[in-house]
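Whiteboard transcription, Tuesday session. T.W. wrote the structure tokens on the left side:
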């Protein structure tokens, strides 16, 4: 029941082709291979969606759709799998990626570049300095997390799809 509701929320290829934002993709978007639920297409689409869902905080769906078109992946799978990060999962995912980035880069938490003004030396660190201090570890952690999760989702879906096909064939005998 919930799956049926979610499927109805996914726009059709005709609706996407009529969109003024995606019209430039033209006939590429109407290619039936991009809308077919095949093992390779879905595995590619989910891995693309997971990658962009974790790596990019904004415009995840358009980036995943454009990449899915370029790599001949299933567009609905790519678009929906970007929802791996949502308001509930965003904070723990980004915190874990930040901690991973700290570990990989060898930086310490709260490390801030030495460019301080006289006022900043006296006061606590400004908000901007705190944000720029987490930038590098966060980007490194997100890149590693997105790459590993994208590859893992591709392998998992490929193996699961193959296992389900074998199970169905055995059951039909």
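and on the right, the sequence the group agreed on:
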């Amino acid at each position: 029941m919930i799956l049926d509701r979610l499927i109805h929320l996914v726009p059709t290829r005709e609706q996407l082709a009529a969109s003024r934002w995606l019209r430039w993709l033209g006939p590429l978007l109407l290619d039936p291979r991009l809308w077919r639920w095949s093992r390779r297409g879905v595995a590619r689409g989910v891995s693309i969606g997971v990658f962009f869902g974790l790596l990019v905080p904004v415009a995840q769906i358009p980036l995943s759709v454009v990449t899915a078109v370029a790599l001949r992946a299933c567009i609905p799978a790519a678009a929906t799998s970007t929802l791996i990060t949502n308001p509930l999962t965003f904070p723990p995912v980004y915190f874990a990626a930040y901690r991973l980035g700290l570990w990989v880069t060898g930086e310490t938490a709260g490390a801030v570049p030495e460019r301080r003004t006289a006022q900043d030396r006296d006061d606590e660190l400004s908000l901007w300095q705190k944000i720029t201090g987490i930038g590098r570890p966060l980007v490194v952690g997100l890149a590693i997390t997105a790459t590993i999760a994208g590859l893992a989702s591709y392998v998992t879906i490929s193996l699961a799809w193959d296992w389900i096909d074998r199970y169905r064939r055995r059951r039909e005998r």
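Someone added at the bottom: The radius of gyration is 21 Å.
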